[in-house]
Amino acid sequence: MTSDGGNQPAGEKLQKVLARAGLGSRREMEAAIQAGRVRIEGRVAKLGDRAQPRDHVELDGQTVQRVHREPPRRVLLYNKPEGEVTTRSDPEGRSTVFERLPRTPGRWIAVGRLDINSQGLLLFTNDGELANALMHPSTGVEREYACRIHGEVTEEMVHRLVGGVELEDGPAHFEVVESAMPVDEPQEGANAWFHVIVTEGRRREVRRLWESQGVTVSRLIRVRYGPVVMPRDLRRGQLHELDEANKRELYEHVGLTPPEPVRRTAPQRRRRRGRKRR
């Protein structure tokens, strides 16, 4: 089917429709279409298909909640406490990081994960392209952690950890290892604090790297993700929405075009002022 002009196909590219709904990046949605996971109007979709506004679209058998206009692209910072899992639902009934999130068009995507025993900075966005760029190994986005280590840490160990060690899923290393003793928590016995930086999001990578040297991580806190640093006044379990300037910096950091700032219309501002006078 074509548009009225006869030159352009009608509708919108299916992968764009799916990405706008917050189901992943366009690249991920293209892969889902090629894998036969997407249906449009009851038939298996193919790459190149377009969706009309009233077409019924499914991903993995679930109806896609269509977002017909580009929603405001948002980024939330969350100070994850220990004991919460980074999943939408947990069969064991444990608390999840998604329970505290506000409603948004599409869905929230967690940028990376923190295991149940880790805490600190976790990013959420409703922009699948941004989430994919922040997590993909090719972009090399830095993740910085504060680690409390139980056991003696020697210069030789630090040298090996920066140079690279072999883990069960391949070689890994820290970009940086620095001693960082918090002033409000003095060293006790064999416990010492370090800051480390990695550029991948592999499962339990920070813990496994330290364990390869015969020491254990007794506390793990993510303090930075790319250019986003955990605000000092963001307490555990609290959320903070990134402002326009910092959101722009985050998009530019991974080579994406920042969204246009959200502006209220003049009537909206007048109505808001009118409510305050009452």
Q: Explain this structure to me?
A:
The strands form 4 sheets. Strands 7, 8, 9, 10, 13, 14, 15, 16 and 17 form a 9-stranded mixed beta sheet that branches. A 4-stranded antiparallel beta sheet has the order 3-2-5-6. Strands 1-4 form a two-stranded antiparallel sheet. The protein is of the alpha+beta class. 22% of the residues lie in helices and 26% in strands. Mean pLDDT is 86; it is low at 1-6 and 265-278. Strand 5 (57-59) and strand 6 form a beta hairpin. The termini are far apart.
Overview features:
278 residues; alpha+beta; nine-stranded mixed β-sheet; four-stranded antiparallel β-sheet; disordered C terminus
Mean pLDDT: 86
Sheet having the most strands = 9 strands, mixed
Report the radius of gyration as a whole number of Å: 22 Å
Question: Secondary-structure element sequence?
Answer: EHHEEEEEEEEHEHEEEEHEEEHH
Q: Decide which structural class fits the backbone.
A: alpha+beta
Count of alpha and pi helical runs = 7
What shape does the CA trace take?
elongated
Ends: how far apart?
Answer: 53 Å
Helicity, as a percent range? 10-25%
Percent strand equals 25-35%
Count of beta strands: 17
Topology:
Elements (H helix, E strand, L loop, with lengths): L11 E2 H7 L5 H9 L3 E3 L2 E2 L5 E2 L5 E3 L2 E2 L11 E6 L28 E3 L7 E7 L2 H8 L7 E8 L4 H9 L1 E3 L2 E3 L3 E4 L11 E8 L6 H7 L4 E10 L2 E2 L9 E3 L2 H10 L12 H12 L1
Parallel strand pairs: 9-15
Antiparallel strand pairs: 1-4, 2-3, 2-5, 5-6, 7-9, 7-17, 8-9, 10-14, 10-15, 11-12, 13-14, 15-16
Helix pairs in contact: 1-2
